[in-house]
DNA sequence: TCTAGTCCCATTGACGCCCATAGTGCCCCA
DNA sequence: TGGGGCACTATGGGCGTCAATGGGACTAGA
C-alpha cells in the first residue's frame, strides 16, 4: 500500500531526533528518496510532509498562476521560503528543528498522521483536539443532510 | 536537491561579514560560480541573490512586465546600476555593504530565504512580517476561491 | 600612517554517521 | 497449541566532521 494512513506518536530524543514511522518511511524510500519536503500548513498548526514529488505537485500548481500577479509571488514565497527539506538519517529519523517547533508547538512528542498522498506532523494534543473537532463537524454535516436524505448508516 | 529552499538566519560579525548558508553555497558552487549577483527586489525590502543567470531572468521579466520600452529601460538601469557582485571569501562569507543595508534595513542579522532558483536576503523582522502577511493573503484567497494550495484540508 | 579588504587559522557547537539495546510482533517448529 | 527465536522498530548514545563565528596578520590604496 503506497498511501499514508493512520497515525502514530513518537518521542523526540535528547538530541532532538524523532523516528519517522517505518510505514511512512517505506513509502518514501520505495520511491528512492532520502529526504522529505515539509511545508507549514496554512490553516493548521501542522506540517505537511512528503517526498520531493510533493514539491513538484505544488510547483505545477504554481505554474498555473499568472507569473506577474501578487498571488504567484506569494505562493512562491510560501512554497520555497516557508518550506524546507528534512533529511532522514541512516536510522530513518529526522531532527526536529525550530522551524518545525515554532509552527506546530511540538516539544517532546510528535504525532505522525497519514493524509493519503502525504502525511502530517502534529503536537499530540493539538492533533487530538483537531481530530475531535473534525469529527464533530462531520457529524453535524451528516445530521443536516439526514434531514433531507435519511441514509442511516450508523 | 539543487533548489534554494527554506530559510536560515545568520549573524553579521564585527567586520561586517556573514556566512552564506552552506546549503545555498553548495548549490552555487555546483553550478561552478564563485561570485554572486545581487539585485534589489522590485516590491520587497529584500535582495535577490543568485548566479549570473539571475540577471537574464530579471531582464526577461522586465520586458514582459512593462510594455513601454522607456520605462523598462529605466527599471533596468535602476536594477543594474545598483546591482553588484558579492564576492565569497574562502570561508563562504560575504561582506554586507551599505548597498545591502540601505535597501533591506539589515543591521545585525541576515535571514537567507530560498526562492527556488535563487535566494533572498532579509532583515529577520521584516522577513517574519512578510511571512505572516503572505500566509494571511493566501489563506484569505483560498477561503474565497477555495484555492487548493495546501493538500492538508482534513 | 591609517583604514579597508583579504587570507588564514582557532574555537565551538551542531549535525551526520555509526553502533547498541530494549520492546514487540511474527513465524516456525516441537 | 504453546514456546522459542528471529526480524524489525523505536530509542539512546559515542564520536568525528563540518559549518558558523571570531579574530589575527598581511597587503594595498588613500
Automatic annotation (TrEMBL), chains A, B:
One Pfam family here: MraZ
Xref: InterPro entries: MraZ, MraZ_C, MraZ_dom, MraZ_N, MraZ_sf, SpoVT-AbrB_dom, SpoVT-AbrB_sf
GO cellular component: cytoplasm; nucleoid
Highest taxon of the lineage: Bacteria
Keywords: Cytoplasm, DNA-binding, Repeat, Transcription, Transcription regulation
GO biological process, one term: negative regulation of DNA-templated transcription initiation
Main location class: cytoplasm
UniProt GO molecular function: DNA-binding transcription factor activity; transcription cis-regulatory region binding
Residue ranges constituting the SpoVT-AbrB domain according to the UniProt record: 7-54, 83-126
Subcellular localization(s) per the UniProt record: Cytoplasm, Nucleoid
Subunit comment: Forms oligomers.
Family: Belongs to the MraZ family.
Name of the molecule in the record: Transcriptional regulator MraZ
Species: Phyllobacterium sophorae
Gene: mraZ
Amino acid at each position: 500500500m503506497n498511501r499514508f494512513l493512520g497515525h502514530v506518536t513518537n518521542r523526540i530524543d535528547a538530541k532532538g531526533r524523532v523516528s519517522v514511522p517505518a510505514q511512512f518511511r517505506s513509502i518514501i524510500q520505495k520511491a528512492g528518496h532520502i529526504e522529505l519536503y515539509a511545508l507549514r500548513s496554512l490553516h493548521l498548526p501542522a506540517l505537511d510532509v512528503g517526498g520531493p514529488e510533493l514539491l513538484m505537485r505544488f510547483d505545477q500548481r504554481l505554474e498555473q498562476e499568472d507569473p506577474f500577479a501578487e498571488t504567484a509571488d506569494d505562493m512562491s514565497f510560501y512554497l520555497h521560503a516557508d518550506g524546507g527539506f528534512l533529511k532522514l538519517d541512516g536510522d530513518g529519523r529526522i531532527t526536529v528543528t525550530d522551524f518545525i517547533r515554532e509552527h506546530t508547538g511540538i516539544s517532546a512528542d510528535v504525532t505522525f498522521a497519514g493524509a493519503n498522498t502525504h502525511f502530517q506532523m502534529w503536537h499530540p494534543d493539538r492533533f487530538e483536539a483537531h481530530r475531535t473537532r473534525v469529527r464533530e463537524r462531520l457529524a453535524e454535516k451528516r445530521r443536516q443532510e439526514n434531514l433531507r436524505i435519511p441514509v442511516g448508516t450508523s
